[in-house]
């Protein structure tokens, strides 16, 4: 029994030196000698400490300062036995010392390695470097060389990668730290494996080392992850495949990565939540296709759409839930939710609803109100939203004052500045932040119109909790008066610069005026020569000077059109026209037009000079040859008009024109009235006409805001000569009111009166008034509303009234296509008849208008209200190319 125990003990004793031999060697590092003219003595200990850290990483057990070197003794001058004695005192297997030398920017590191217990020669390690910023990196290189001598390691002779088919070996080797020629370090292999795994392309990585006579060959064996061969979607009906795939960041050919797949599954769930399918279930299954390829199938159970069932408020006392819900864009599910999308949860809309509610309260005097972020709870197929509100007290408008920096005066008396402000107009008025913001704009415009382009205006709002009033002080810093140093116009390649400058009511070296600058931009837009007009202001050479930059983008202004169509007034027609509204870049317009139809033919030429002799005087000339077949006669006419116009107020021009017309009345029907037979043959009309017109519309066709008004008096015969003699008065007015969702309400009225100057000539039937057709009373045939003679022939009236109401709504906004619904009323009266506004004829209808490439097009259907006689109650379509009222 004792012999086996003794034998085991003997084997343990024999094994003990083997354990020591296989354990990590200990290394004592002595201070380095520093040889340089610079003050770098700290490196004496810093270099050994860096060596210690690096040697520990390489697998040795290093230490610094365990044994003291005799004072003023350089280890390089000590004999080997004395050095070994120092090593033994430190209980170290190896002793390391060295030196650092530097000349200029170049330095060298020299290290010596001595075995403490084994009789062997001193081994040397050496590196060189340039620039002190590279020193620690070079210490790392020195450490590897020292470690190879201490640990007896070999050089890496080669690095191989096997098992890869899609990923290049060079790309893998590029990622690892171990390089060919380095000292082999088993500890570095773990870092290299992690680096290769981080590429995301491999399922498994193994590393092997093979020792050869010249060093070590390292081989990395990798197992690549499969590639996605196909992504299949199943179960989705509410969201298209393309929309789901677009939300994902993996696709066919991607590396199969489970984490990325799960991330994309979550993205699909979020996509369904955005569409209010909060209960959608999304799973996936991976199926091998063939070697290194797999299919990914995403299975979706959409469930039902989750809608907002309830929006509740907590803390609101001043306003009812119903009132607050109207402020929000988010709404509860309604009966017509499948049309209106009510009840659909949109996270961005809900976030903005908090701001809308907050603004609503502040605009009603609750300046301390706060709105919490809405709480959303999904309960099965319903969504419940709770909005918590802290209202606070309602404040009224208190004292309103103006404040300026010390030494700066107001540009006008305080009462004159406060007068246009909306805030504080009424006693006991509830405070509104929105109104205050409008007042800031009003004050800014007031100061900018006086030349203070850089005026700064901000309100100081001070709630008084005792009075429950808000005192408002508008702090105004007007800055310097600013003058236009330069007006720079760019982008005009065709239009002459003077054509642009004359539309600007501002000039270089003149005082800045914000309203006039905006007016000038509006004038340029109304010219319709440019696709875009951009305005930029930059500071000039001094603080009181400004450079105004106007950049225009020109568009084609010439047009050649031909085509055909159908009109209710002209039946089938063919048309060709050549027009240029910016002739030679001078802003002049010239139009030549020919139109041939079933009931009329017209040839015309018109020319307009908007700035005659570079003044604001407008001149125009028109020539025409026109044949029209009326129901009971034919009128062949040739003539022309000369006109002059001049601006008299904003948006207002006065015109005077002279017209000369020769009409031949022929092919008179036996059913024509006596008034037609009276003018059979040639009739000369010589007349002068005065007109005042106001037009502030933003566009001439499909306008959305502004108004226009016109009044004219035409006098024919007498001193003007000719066969016809009459005086005609016509006035009309049109108003456009922008509404919600880009809709527009339009109101139009027109009236006229004509009387015959019997002593000088006669009034023909074709100069009297008629209503009916697309430009007056829709639903009635052209010129259908008219007084009749005793035989029932239409003779026209000497007075009329007409009213039109329209509601416009966009159909395809970008294409200029709008829809409309209308109501027309009016009538025509004969001599001696009184206008009866209680018994006007009426019609209603709908239509579309399109600013097409060939010009404005209208297609409208009207229905007569309370038809009389043989009037059609089924409605009639009417079509025209041209402007509206």
Automatic annotation (TrEMBL):
<dbReference type="GO" id="GO:0071709">
    <property type="term" value="P:membrane assembly"/>
</dbReference>
<keyword id="KW-0677">Repeat</keyword>
<feature type="domain" description="POTRA">
    <location>
        <begin position="154"/>
        <end position="225"/>
    </location>
</feature>
<dbReference type="InterPro" id="IPR023707">
    <property type="entry name" value="OM_assembly_BamA"/>
</dbReference>
<keyword id="KW-0472">Membrane</keyword>
<keyword id="KW-0732">Signal</keyword>
<dbReference type="InterPro" id="IPR000184">
    <property type="entry name" value="Bac_surfAg_D15"/>
</dbReference>
<keyword id="KW-0998">Cell outer membrane</keyword>
<feature type="signal peptide">
    <location>
        <begin position="1"/>
        <end position="21"/>
    </location>
</feature>
<dbReference type="InterPro" id="IPR010827">
    <property type="entry name" value="BamA/TamA_POTRA"/>
</dbReference>
<feature type="domain" description="POTRA">
    <location>
        <begin position="306"/>
        <end position="392"/>
    </location>
</feature>
<keyword id="KW-1134">Transmembrane beta strand</keyword>
<feature type="domain" description="POTRA">
    <location>
        <begin position="482"/>
        <end position="555"/>
    </location>
</feature>
<dbReference type="InterPro" id="IPR039910">
    <property type="entry name" value="D15-like"/>
</dbReference>
<keyword id="KW-0812">Transmembrane</keyword>
<protein>
    <recommendedName>
        <fullName>Outer membrane protein assembly factor BamA</fullName>
    </recommendedName>
</protein>
<dbReference type="InterPro" id="IPR034746">
    <property type="entry name" value="POTRA"/>
</dbReference>
<dbReference type="Pfam" id="PF07244">
    <property type="entry name" value="POTRA"/>
</dbReference>
<dbReference type="GO" id="GO:0009279">
    <property type="term" value="C:cell outer membrane"/>
</dbReference>
<dbReference type="Pfam" id="PF01103">
    <property type="entry name" value="Omp85"/>
</dbReference>
